[in-house]
Specification:
Elements lengths: L1 E10 L2 E7 L4 E5 L6 H13 L18 E10 L2 E10 L5 E4 L2 E2 L12 E4 L5 H4 L2 H13 L3 H23 L8 H41 L5 E6 L7 H7 L1 H7 L10 E6 L2 E2 H4 L2 H23 L4 E4 L8 H11 L7 E5 L2 H11 L3 E6 L5 E7 L1 H6 L1
Parallel strand pairs: 3-13, 3-14, 8-12, 12-13
Antiparallel strand pairs: 1-2, 1-4, 4-5, 5-6, 6-7, 9-10, 10-11, 14-15
Length: 379
């Protein structure tokens, strides 16, 4: 499976754009601000029906325009699917596959999985626990639709329970039976979510360790530590024990919405002890482990999006990563860089199937290098 074509209309800084891709490595080069990352974000949109960077859909419309359209053609074993995502300021977002609109956007999740590696990933380390829960959710949701539904239903039940706790504020609760209804839903969905997260982290750890060792070349011992209140106690009992506290604070203090994923190096949080280079290696290794996991679950490799790999990495390490993802256990790869000659040199040394695009200041896109499998065979 690979993205064959991509067209954009009024998306971010593009009036219009059309690109045809290699099924293997695609490199986008150009100065900062010309729109390289926006191409990757459009691909991300076609996979997960939303932007990697902007929560608000209207923020992705080109200035002064009323709508954007992203359209892509995905090739799978000779068969092609056309994906279309459109958003109008005054209307709902529309997502179609082969001309048929989805009833719910989450029906599309997992059909075209991607893994994004970005400088923004540092939020996984520096941000709050919500960022790390999102990381877990995005992995599992791309192969398990039941998990995605469980997350949505858990959050709805949590909102209803918190609203009820606010209604009870300052007075004796009049109807605890209603609260028990939401408790039961939290337990049902929360226990499933906890099991899946626990299983994911357990399987990620050995693969993550291998990738970190390969990328860093160091001797640090790294680990992922999944922390959840449900790991130590029954969820139903936790809700009962925390009820008085919840009534005082007017929100639910126990549950999987308090989970966290602790990133450790040599037994300490990497946020505190890790250098910028070590943190970057940690995050890339984590994303590569995510790739392996989704590939194993989905039965085919996700598309890999590598944005600005040279951020905090030297040439030797970047070349090592590109060589790694360039082998055929990985699928289609997209890479951005500001240095055209640097990328040309890496690709020429590796001699891998690729297409190299130059993006100019006016969003002009041209193919400046194209090495396909047939030309490799001739050589």
């Amino acid at each position: 499976m690979y993205l064959k074509q991509l067209s954009l209309t009024n998306f971010k800084n593009y009036d219009s754009a059309f690109l045809e891709f290699s099924p293997r490595i695609n490199c986008l080069v150009g100065n900062n601000g010309v729109g390289k990352t926006n191409i990757l974000d459009a691909i991300y949109y076609l996979s997960l029906t939303k932007s990697f960077y902007n929560i608000v859909d209207s923020a992705n419309i080109k200035h002064s325009r009323e709508f954007f359209i992203i359209e892509g053609v995905v090739s799978t074993n000779g068969n092609e699917d056309t994906l279309l995502c459109s958003f109008h300021r005054q209307k709902m977002k529309v997502f179609k596959r082969n001309g048929k609109e989805y009833d719910k956007l989450n029906e599309h999740i997992g059909k075209f999985p991607v893994v994004m590696v970005s400088p923004a990933d540092t939020l996984l380390i520096t941000g709050g626990s919500e960022e790390r829960r999102k990381f877990l959710n995005k992995i599992i949701s791309q192969y398990d639709s039941v998990y995605l539904d469980a997350i949505l239903n858990y959050n709805k039940a949590l909102q209803q329970r918190n609203r009820l706790l606010k209604d009870f504020a300052g007075k004796l609760p009049s109807d605890m039976e209603i609260l028990a209804v939401w408790d039961a839903q939290l337990v049902t969905y929360g226990e499933y979510i906890h099991r899946e997260r626990n299983s994911l982290v357990r399987e990620l750890i050995p693969v993550f360790n291998e990738y970190y060792s390969f990328i860093s070349g160091g001797n640090e011992k790294v680990n992922l530590n999944y922390r959840s209140q449900l790991s130590e106690s029954d969820f139903g009992e936790l809700l009962k024990q925390s009820l008085n506290k919840d009534l005082i604070l007017e929100y639910t203090t126990a549950g999987i919405h308090k989970d966290d994923l602790i990133f450790e190096m040599d037994g300490h949080p990497i946020k505190i002890t890790g250098s910028q280079g070590q943190q970057k290696s940690y995050l890339v290794a984590l994303k590569l482990a995510k790739f392996d996991y989704i590939k194993r679950k989905a039965g085919f490799p996700p598309v890999m999006l590598l944005d600005d790999l040279f951020d905090k990495f030297d040439l030797e390490r970047v070349e090592k990563i590109i060589k790694l993802v360039g082998n055929h256990r990985f699928g289609q790869i997209f890479i951005t860089d500001t240095d055209e000659e640097r990328m040309k040199n890496i690709l020429s040394r590796l001699n891998v199937e690729h297409r190299l695009f130059r993006i100019g200041v006016n969003c002009n896109i041209e193919v400046i290098s194209d090495l396909n499998s047939s030309s490799n065979e001739k050589e």
